Amino acid sequence: MKRHETLALAAAAATGVQVGAALVASRLVIHDIGPASLAFLRYAIAVLCLVPFVAAGGRVRFATRDLLAVMGLGVIQFGILIALLNLGLQFISSTRAALLFSTFPLMTMIIAALLGRERLTGAKSAGVTLTIVGVAAALGERLMTNAGSSDIIGAILVLAAALCGAVSSVLYRPYLSRYPTLPIGAWAMIASVVFLAGPAGMEGLFTVGTRLDQRGWIVVILIGISSGIGYVLWLWALKQTTPTRVTVFLSLSPITASLLGALILDEPFTLGVLIGLAGVVCGLWLATRVRSVEPQERTLGA
């Protein structure tokens, strides 16, 4: 393996860990700040982190129609997605949220296949099935014992967030073939921040404020900075190797969330969660292992 590919996989792995860590950190403060307010602050800080990279890359001219489409997708990818994810964290643990969210690369495959943009092979189908079984194993124990509506609501919200990521990833493709990835990501994030300002204002972010203490603000700032850095690493990795080799490392997010959730939030690490982790990781590997020989495609992730 070439050195730049090794570094790209390391960057992708770092992004997978960042996603899981951000989920745990978000759950740590989610009861002291509204879900939209947290999403607004997260990406406002992330945009500030991207500005130097965008400026260094020079000016890129977008067609007005394309720019509006990219900004609309940004609202879905960074605005609605993260708001749904943060809201879901009010109902379920970060471990289960990470497991559910890690199915978004497989949703991307299915949507792309339905739209005729990618062939869904037997290995990919088996991977989808195995991942669904893994998620069911992780959620089934709690849903069957408690049958609480809050668990079901949380699961639906997180799956809806994953679906937003999958849809936006597929619809980004025409614009990624015309423009550099970093300016597209920056404009998408800027649009999401503008969009989230409304819901955040309704939560009282700009008037009443939040219940965050000093530690809480530090956590929010770190979430924002890590999101900006993680997104730069993600885009850089996509330029160095095939997108599916990058995407598969999102399977590290539930592992990270499980370990950090148990250590920091005292969340239970049950046998069902362990089986679910194995199912998701194996399913993702099985579904993506053959794609390295397919034509390179570009996708965007959170």
Describe the model.
The protein has one domain (3-293). It has 13 helices and no strands. The protein has helices at residues 3-29, 35-56, 64-88, 94-101, 104-114, 122-146, 149-171, 173-176, 181-202, 214-240, 243-247, 252-264, 271-288. The two termini are 27 Å apart. It is globular, with a radius of gyration of 18 Å. The protein is mostly helical. Helix 2 packs across helix 3 and helix 6 (122-146) runs antiparallel to helix 13. Mean pLDDT is 81; it is low at 291-302. It is found in: Membrane. The chain crosses the membrane at residues 36-55, 67-92, 98-116, 123-140, 152-172, 184-202, 214-234, 246-265, 271-288. It is a multi-pass membrane protein. Belongs to the EamA transporter family. Residues 9-137, 153-288 form the EamA domain.
> Fraction of residues in helices?
over 70%
Helix/strand-derived category reads mainly alpha
Shape: globular
Radius of gyration: 18 Å
* Unreliable residue stretches: 291-302
Q: Treating each run of at least 4 consecutive H or I residues as one helix, how many helices? A: 13
Biggest sheet, open or closed, and with what strands and sense? Answer: none
Q: What's the end-to-end separation, in Å?
A: 27 Å
SSE arrangement, N to C:
HHHHHHHHHHHHH
Number of strands: 0
Mean pLDDT: 81
Number of domains: 1
Question: Hey, roughly how much beta strand do the residues contain?
Answer: under 5%
